[in-house]
Amino acid sequence: MGRTLAEKVWDEHVVRSAEGEPDLLYIDLHLLHEVTSPQAFEGLRLAGRRVRRPDLTLATEDHNVPTLDIDRPIADPVSRTQVETLRRNAQEFGVRLHPLGDVEQGIVHIIGPQLGLTQPGMTIVCGDSHTSTHGAFGSIAFGIGTSEVEHVLATQTLMQAKPKTMAVTVNGSLPDGVTAKDLVLTLIAHTGTGGGQGYIVEYRGQAIEELSMEARMTICNMSIEWGAKAGLIAPDQTTFDYVEGRPEAPKGADWDAAVAHWKSLVTDADATFDKEIVLDASEMTPFVTWGTNPGQGVQLGASVPSPSDYSDEGDRIAAQKALEYMGLEAGTPMRDIEVDTVFVGSCTNGRIEDLRAAAEVLRGRKVADSTRLLVVPGSVRVRLQAEDEGLDVVFKEAGGEWRNAGCSMCLGMNPDQLQPGERSASTSNRNFEGRQGKGGRTHLVSPLVAAATAVKGRLASPADLDPATPAAHA
Amino acid sequence: MEKITSHTGTVLPLRRSNVDTDQIIPAVYLKRVTRTGFEDGLFGAWRNDPDFILNKPEYSGVSVLVAGPDFGTGSSREHAVWALMDYGFKVVLSSRFADIFRGNAGKAGLLAAQVDQDVVERLWALVEADPATEVTVDLEAREVRAGNLVASFQIDDYTRWRLLEGLDDIGITLSHEEDVASYEASRPSWKPVTM
Prior knowledge:
The structure holds two protein chains of two kinds. The longest helix of chain A has 17 residues, at about 75-95. Chain A contains 16 helices and 19 strands. By secondary structure, chain A is of the alpha/beta class. The N and C termini of chain A lie far apart (about 60 Å). Chain A has helices at about 5-10, 40-45, 75-95, 110-115, 145-155, 180-190, 205-210, 215-220, 235-245, 250-260, 315-325, 345-350, 350-360, 380-390, 390-400, 445-455, and strands at about 15, 25, 30, 55-60, 95-100, 125, 140-145, 155-160, 165-170, 200-205, 230, 275-280, 285-290, 295-300, 340-345, 370-375, 400, 425, 440-445. In chain A, helix 6 packs parallel to helix 8 (about 215-220), helix 13 packs across helix 15 (about 390-400) and helix 13 runs parallel beside helix 16 (about 445-455). Chain B is globular and about 65 Å long. The two termini of chain B are about 35 Å apart. The relative contact order of chain B is 0.17. At the A-B interface, helix 2, helix 3, helix 5, helix 10 and helix 11 of A face helix 3, helix 6 and helix 7 of B.
């Protein structure tokens, strides 16, 4: 019988398999950052162990680094200690590190693909749940805890029970102005936060095939938000074109051998999935969240739901608590919700295409007086590319702030945080209570909706805006 | 890792679903480089509310957490497990756990036992009626017992065995070093390296 893409990649990485035990999987690439690695290195040190494969390991600083004044010592002493600890560990254990200030520094899930280290058919792990991003290349990629980080450092393997397989087939094409972010938020509202639990998900169908690599990364990035172990997309010419020529991509005969293998990484026609979800992209519209988990979302054109809309008691209570936390009244049109801060960035939507999309909306327009716009590129390379294209000027002329690379306000570990009660429209991935700062209220949106919201001062799509005024000097 | 065979203790009935790891321990507490001392961050934001259940004196000394479905969603931070354990929790019962949380719990030695939602509801009712109610979570028998309630729970065989034996995963894997070396010898040359 045929096998799915996920099963093929899994099988290729099984080091050892025994009845009643999880498989021992080989890990092709282990990504590290400052927050989830210190206790793992400490564990190695205490046990007198080394890093088995430093050459399959890469570290960067992203979660708690500042996005301003990056040439000065980090002001927060606790953050500084954590970053310095990573630097010491990288040196002691011989791990390649792209520190703050390095041209390759950035969010760990942005720099892997950018360097060409993320390739089809790999196993990729990191102590970060959004490792699922790398699945866009047809790899099995997932987040792990610190004990597992230590396990991978010491052995380059992980013990993993084989998950079930699911297909999410998205037929049709996304309408203009509807993005990968809207697609995945629509999916999560459909499945709930636990819908993917126990599955590796393959996204497929016309709408997925039509997406760029960066948009595919947005989809796979959010796999964890509906509980999936991992999400992946079969590699195709779009994938190969993206990887070719990147610094760590195979070259010459190696490239040909690699592509020949990658072309076999598709789900066989006679393979079966344990579960399938089918969606129609042509019916999708801009989609935003109203609540405190990524499954609590509606179309931008809809209204805040009422707890009484839910038949399940648990859902009803969750909706009631979410409305209280978010300070929202049931029945309020989403477009009437006023927003204090717009955040464009993160491993979900901090790549160059995201910044271009936001800049296109903001060109010749102004951020509303009552609203703050924060644009944080996902990596130094993305920042340099954006500056090369003049996007930074567009953001600044519109009244936005242009920052240095990092996770920033996605999780508010650095100084970029919401104030209590402050409301954001954010291109990031989690609207959990307090995620972007204690008491902060988050609406997850696409880069297009983020930019339009910045102009209107309330949730909006580009179609809601008056025509732009041509820039004076244009 | 400490062996677990059975645990008996009092219960914190947390009537919430989707308790994500940002709620279990907010990101601001993750800046430490040590492995212990995370108890102050447990449910950091919710504990500011004097009415939050963990602040109530009748629930001091609890060691079993009973929560709604989709417990531990979101971030992979193992600090969530450490915070629960540092506070004194030995067991979490829920009708559905997020994968990464469940994995982290098993590695660190926190028993994440999956029970049917109606068992969760009955435990909540029992404990809310009498917070001194003790629950026994018997890993050998895969059973939860409290008052007249006896119910089975789910945990995968391998994690159960490791918890019962108190085994360290890295040690187990290193005993398969020959398999790892032979797999490495067969990897294609075009696979990427970082140096």
